[in-house]
Structures are given as structure tokens and as C-alpha cells.
Amino acid sequence: MAEEIKPKLIVFDLDYTLWPFWVDTHVDPPFTLKGNGKVYDFRGAEVKHYPEVPDVLKKLQNDGYKLGIASRTGAIEDGRKLVELFGWEEYFQFSEIYPGVKTKHFSRFNEKSKIPYEDMLFFDDENRNIVDVSKLGVTFCFMFRVGLCDNVGDTLEEESAHFDVKPGGKINVYTRDWDGFHCVFTYACQGGTKEQWMMTLKRSINKKYSKCLVFRPSGNSYLFFEQFSVQIKGPQIQSAKLLANNGKPLSPEQYKIEKSKNTVTHTNEKFNSELTFIEIDAIRHKKKKEL
Ligand SMILES: [Mg+2]
């Protein structure tokens, strides 16, 4: 039997790992905890974490693991406040919340806890953090935005290519195909000149989780989109994140996820024609065994 190796410190990212939003852009502080036990933001919208998180943290603490937070959010106080209001402070012995490369966060964990990097396990949803931190020897687990983690230590492979997004109002289609994982971007837009965009496909080594990203690398687009749609063939769409200029999230009424067509599409009435970034998470379900 293989020897079971257990980590001594388990570290979690915050945004899109413990809760499904970016604390610096999606929610409006100050936050308050109401008598019903729920947390609300300034606008009165409920702020929710991923539902399983409290049970997971409690179980890990009861099982004797030390727990930490490594977040690179710029909204340092807001991140801390939410951890406090969700009642999670008792679980985390270590907390490093500030912008910058996460190797810094981990070197602080190492200094404070004296736990070697090899005995740390790290959960994060962004590949760049996982790549940085894994160089220290930390074992990592990539979180997809559906809040799942599978095959600890599995990294992501990716392939990407630039393509031109052309104005003129015509319907254009750009497709990439990677071993049965297709991403099809259809759009029509108006504007002055064409822009260079990029499509990146990512997947876990076990091919269960996939991502398709369609974006303008500079983060801003001067085109006026009349319509867009991204269709995935192969894995099933689970969630999507879309941004307009300056990293501003598109509000949920500006687009729709249609699971039956496996598409993410603009909504006619609400979409305000600004688009710079689309990220789609998809899962390949195991084929049912034929009887
Ligand atoms: Mg994150």
C-alpha cells in the first residue's frame, strides 16, 4: 500500500476559491452581518461564499491541519472583513492578504510556521499563482470556478493563438479545436480598425476540466459589439466570467448561459456592447457505460 502523505499546512486563495466573486470589484463594502446570520453589502445584496466552505474548514481543523489564506486582492480590509463576518477567523492560523506574487505570501508562511514548502498544499483558481508557488515545492490544487478540485498536483496544459477581431458588422467566426475540445467564438461588431485578440484553451491533464478564454490582451477594446456567442463542443459549460473595459464585470443580465446549446451569448435587451474578456469553465462528464 502506498504511504499516505499528509500536508501540514493547507492554504486557500479567497476570490473564486472560497467565494464566487472578486472582493475588489463584484461586491460593495462596507459589509454587515445581520441578525439572520447572513452577510450583506452596502447595496443590500447578500454576499455568499461557496456553500461547502464552512464544513470543509471545520473538518480540516478537526483533523488537525493548520490552515492559511493567501490572497493577492487589493481590497485587503474588505477581504479580511468578509473572512471575519463569515466566522472563518477561528479556522485560519495564517493569513497573508495583499497584492503581488504569491511566492511572497508563502515565504511568510514558511517563516512564521517553520513548515517546509513540501508540506504545504495550496488551493487556487489562477494558473499564474499555481505556477509561481509550485516552483517553491508546494503541492497545489487547481480550483475551477465551479468550486471543484480533483487530482491534486494536476497542472493545466494550454494552447493559444492570436486572431483578428474585425469590425464592419458582418458575422465572423473564429474556432479552435484541441483534441475534441472545440471553442467557437461568433461575433459582429462595429468600430474603426481591427483588433488583435487571443483565444486560449486550457485543460487539466486528466482532461476532465477545460477552459476557453477569448480576450483582448491589452484589457480594453474600442469595438462596439452588436452580438457575440461562444459555443463549446466536448465538455459541458459550467460557468462563465465576462469583462468589459477596465476589468469591469458584465452584469449577469447582459449575457446568458444556455446549457442545452452549450453556449454563452449576449442578451439582446441588456448587453451594452462592451466586451474584452470571456472565460468559460467546462467539465467533461464520464461517458455512461454502454449496457
Ligand atoms: Mg482567486
Automatic annotation (TrEMBL):
UniProt keyword Nucleotide-binding, yes or no: no
UniProt keywords, alphabetically: Hydrolase
Domain of life of the native organism: Eukaryota
Statement: the UniProt record of this protein carries the keyword Flavoprotein: no
Protein name, entry field: MDP1
E.C. no: 3.1.3.-, 3.1.3.48
Pfam families with a match to the protein in the record: Acid_PPase, UPF0556
MF term (GO), any: acid phosphatase activity
